[in-house]
Amino acid sequence: MMVAAGLFVSAAAARFARAQDGEPDLTLHGGVPPDRGGGPAVAAPAAIVAARPEAATAAEVPWGFYRDRQGRMMQVSFDFGRRLWLGVGYAPHRTSSGDTEISPAAFDFGVSYDRLSDDGRTRERFTVLDGQVRLHSFGLDIVGFRYDLSHRYETPLLRITTFVKDPERHDLFLNVGFYTEALHFEVAPRGIEGEESLTLASAQGTLDLWQSEDLRSYVRLRVGPGVEARLGPWGDEARFVGLFPQATLEGNLILGRRAMQRLNFRLRGDLLRSATWNAQELPGVWTAAAEAAYEAILIAINDQPVSFRLAGSAFLRDDTREVVAGLPPARVLGWTGTAGIRMAFFSPPVPPFLRK
Amino acid sequence: MFARAAPLGLLALLIATPVRAADTDEAPVIWVTRADGARYRVRFDPGERIILGAGPELRGGGAATGLAIDVGLLLRGERPAPGWDVHWKRNHELARLHLQPAAGPSGAAIDGVLYRGLFLRQSREGTLTLPVTPPVALPLPFDIGVLAEVGHLHGAPWPEAGGPPVDAGIVHGEVLADFWRSRLPGRWLTVGVGGRYEIGLQRDAAGALERDHRVSPMSTLAVALHSERADGLAAAGVRAEASHRWSSARGWERAYRADADAEWTPLAVNDRPLALFALASAASSPDLPRAELSVIAGLRFSQPLR
What we know:
A: mainly beta; Outer membrane phospholipase (ompla), Chain C; 1 helix; 52% strand; B: 16 strands
């Protein structure tokens, strides 16, 4: 089912994020759509930003910048993959006990850096201290370190030749990558107060169902094991719990001709096993979570982008017994919504993508 | 009293210092050669060195007085190339620690940060860009920057039963507007809006650990002024912040903090500066039984790294 959903989403992603194939279009056309058909395979050189002749000076501007009639230069392209951000938002929340909290706020932060290999076929992404702190009531979800890579293979894994009518060759590529996460700390991961979890590490394989040419956008499946330590009262039942496995369908889509919008989504399922020497009973053996976020850059202050962000997440957990007094054993749903702004720093223009 | 006033006095002097050739793109003279050929250093970079200082620390509110140690690694970005348009002034502090080994019967007292980075983006012209087609730029009278801090510890090194609290700052970030826009490194006048997450840890007499999560969701307002002489022989700064924060133990509350520092280098030993320094801080918040005040004044030895 997850694979089917992945195929559907990847088809949709390919449609909506097609603008990211090849170089991001930073050209300002004054309302005239750019003619991208039949263009060269190599992206245009740096002098790409051009406004209506009467609105801009002829002076040379670097890639991703624009110079107005007064000669002022400004950055008009920003890389979502390379930045340090601080944000604040309104974050209503529904706990697993059914209480809806309508007055909380959230403070989020993080650092990300990604890079494309010289041959343009591998993109590595590093993220440090990516987190959100909620207040009223308190909540914390922070990832100490995350690394993943996407790769585009040139050699097909399978070549299938059909001999009906004329012989035809069909290539099957499997764009396999890698994902790892360490020191992921969550307060109330199942929505139960007093529970805390620290995912010590997880290492997972990824399969890109769809990827843009510059590998910024993707839809992928990832599957793999992990180990988390449970802190607080529920740690008395099992201190270490294994994620055997964790399976996730996720996507990162950079949208818009000038790459000023981003859409993320994630569907995750965990099968939990006691990772202690003497296997202990767990209050639930699976959890499921879904997240989606949309971010659009609104303005830039001294070339540092300020964006608006909408996000939502929901989780469902299995409870085979009563872990909270008065809360019946059930599969319990909770959700969080966020609407806020982010300010990012050190975000360079999206570089031109040169096909190799 | 003198130690408390020293940072402010030195700061006023530094601000009044006329901006000379050093506030340009020209490379400054660092070494001077005497008539007999011997060289000696006359200029230091306060932002690029290892520091080791010591001096008596005075604490208000009846707390213990004792010897305090000040250590840390400071790093700073290179000066911009001539003809620059945009330049990031980068100041890093690593393992910056004020330690009072014998703060009383409860043991040592620490105020330290694992990493603090101050990044100020200097441009010849500040603009607010609206990314419409074509983009529109509105002039701004300030530069912009960011302060990032990870791993701050204040109080006792570890919460002990019946002992003093420990404040562990996880992350602190501030969006800054720099109104001074000085080209000289070490000079800024910033107004910042920041967010912070910290945990207050304390054990009661029975040893039970109480945790107080404190979050400031971009609701901290801070003002900072810092200056240093072009030759690096004197530096001073003040910083004040007011925070409207949320505590998991007490709900919404207000907290205030002010810091001041000053340093003056009268001599160098083997081309390594030996300075007089003073640090002062004051804090007031509902989690403190009374307002905290501390002053350190002493000698600081530096190992220049550039």
